[in-house]
Design goal:
The protein is an alpha+beta fold and 182 residues long. It contains 5 helices and 9 strands.
């Protein structure tokens, strides 16, 4: 199972490198196999994959890289409030893009994973998740800052660590649906 998770992680990292270099014109300097979380220095978003394998993928992006990507996405000047809203949403959008594009590179039985909408995680909950020490991480160092992906298998445990509750509901047509809420 560890090897499959590493393959999925590598697929998303490879897609992230292509996204940064080709779409954002950001020079990638190196990839590392680990990442040390430092308090409040990063913009964080997460996404979960459910199905044959449950994973949560957390993106950490430092301020310099976020602002570089923001300038590429939004070449027009926005007012201060709009800019703050876009800066808050941008890590989720980037994670959604790279996760969605990379799923076709997953090992074939895992290409049918269901991807959640991206969601925010606050720094206190990240510390709680990090303290469980059950994750893999990779980072991409660029000219413009750091881009890191952390994966935690067993998304059910991970989402409960970050404040989500998962419930399965049986619908009248006998199909089952899972919902997540904070």
């Amino acid at each position: 199972m560890q090897r499959i998770i590493e393959t999925i992680l590598d697929s998303i990292i490879d897609t992230s490198v292509l996204f940064l270099e080709n779409d954002m014109s950001i020079n990638v300097l190196q990839n590392n196999d680990d990442f040390i979380f430092k308090d409040n220095k990063y913009h964080i978003s997460a996404i979960s994959f459910d199905g044959k394998l449950d994973l949560i993928c957390i993106l950490y992006m430092d301020d310099r890289l976020l602002k570089s990507i923001y300038k590429i996405f939004f070449s027009n000047k926005l007012n201060r409030q709009e800019e703050q809203e876009m800066l808050k949403e941008l890590p989720k959008e980037v994670l959604n893009i790279v996760a969605g594009l990379s799923i076709s590179k997953f090992p074939s039985p895992y290409r049918e994973l269901i991807i959640s909408p991206p969601f925010d995680i606050d720094h206190a909950k990240i510390k709680n998740l990090s303290s469980h020490n059950l994750f893999l991480s990779k980072s991409i160092k660029t000219d413009n800052g750091l881009f890191c992906l952390v994966y935690r298998s067993d998304a059910a445990a991970a989402t409960s660590c970050v404040g989500f509750v998962r419930r399965r509901i049986l619908l009248p047509n006998k199909s089952e649906v899972e919902i997540r809420y904070q």
